[in-house]
Design brief:
- By secondary structure, the protein is of the alpha/beta class.
- It is about 40% helix and about 15% strand.
- It has eleven helices and eight strands.
- An eight-stranded parallel β-barrel has the order 1-2-3-4-5-6-7-8, surrounded by six helices.
- Helix 7 packs parallel to helix 9.
- The chain is globular and about 45 Å long.
- It binds phosphoenolpyruvate.
- The site of phosphoenolpyruvate (PEP) has 14 residues, from strand 8.
Length: about 260
């Protein structure tokens, strides 16, 4: 780890009011480490409940997605302003499940990231290659392409648009999640993950030599207590985006401890 540590729980479409309360009670009880920033991302209907349950803790809350728009005729969508309004500080964007099941492109992710940042949310922008892309030797090109696309590079927002690249990069964490490792029990080796994280770091530094070295780059894909330590020992792996294991209070607390 060389930048800010961060561990994010992506509960995906899991939970109930009762399950959330007992999971968070177990987690708060199990977290006995010096402060590592932790963000819990429950399904949208439970965000307000989780904000309330974590009000006395240092844990933060984030959405799993948001709209590109602040309000209007977008049935079923949740705006970044609404997330802020109920107490969220973060939002996950461009998760591979959104890209796969909702056909989200880099352009869509870029529009959502710009809207989220304008609303004052910090973003966790997900990137990652498929198994076919890795086997074809194009993993790094795919991931850097997603990064450039999602962070709006090349997009002319115009002079006087108020667009400030440095403050944009300050508000971002990158999650490298190889698609073949998500929910499969197969984790990238620490060395393979580090190779990708180093390329991401290099690109971030090329965008801003001051902010780039400090941007959190998280690994995601079947992170468990027994592989977290080896991943976090790598220079450019600053934390994790955790799916399945974040639904187990003890396992998630152990992953947070490994990041301390
Ligand atoms: C995820 O959904 O972002 C994820 C990494 O899931 P899992 O930890 O279950 O692989």
């Amino acid at each position: 780890m060389s930048a800010h540590p961060l561990v994010v729980a992506n509960w995906k479409m899991n939970g109930s009011r009762a399950d959330n309360a007992s999971l968070l009670a177990g987690l708060l009880d199990g977290l006995r480490v010096p402060h590592v920033p932790v963000v819990i991302c429950p399904p949208a209907p439970y965000l307000e409940q989780v904000v309330g349950l974590l009000a006395e803790s240092e844990l933060e809350v984030g959405g799993q997605d948001c709209s590109h728009s602040s309000s209007g005729a977008f049935t079923g969508e949740v705006s970044p302003q609404m997330l802020r309004d109920i107490g969220c500080g973060w939002v996950i964007l461009g998760h591979s499940e959104r890209r796969q099941y909702h056909r989200e492109t880099d352009e869509v992710v870029a529009a959502k990231a710009a809207a989220a940042q304008a609303a004052g949310l910090r973003t966790i922008v997900c990137v990652g290659e498929t198994r076919e892309q890795r086997e074809a030797g194009s993993a790094i090109d795919i991931v850097l392409g997603q990064l450039k696309g999602a962070l709006g590079v090349g997009e002319d927002r115009g002079a006087g648009s108020g667009h400030d690249r440095r403050s944009e990069l300050t508000q971002v964490a990158i999650a490298y999640e190889p698609v073949w490792a998500i929910g499969t029990g197969i984790t990238a080796t620490p060395e393979a993950a580090q190779e990708m994280h180093a390329s991401i770091r290099e690109w971030l530094i090329s965008q801003d030599p001051v902010v780039g070295p400090t941007t959190s780059i998280l690994y995601g894909g079947s992170v468990k207590p027994d592989n977290a330590q080896a991943l976090f020992a790598m220079e450019d792996i600053d934390g994790a985006l955790v799916g399945g294991a974040s639904l187990d209070a003890g396992a998630f607390a152990d992953i947070v401890s490994a990041a301390a």
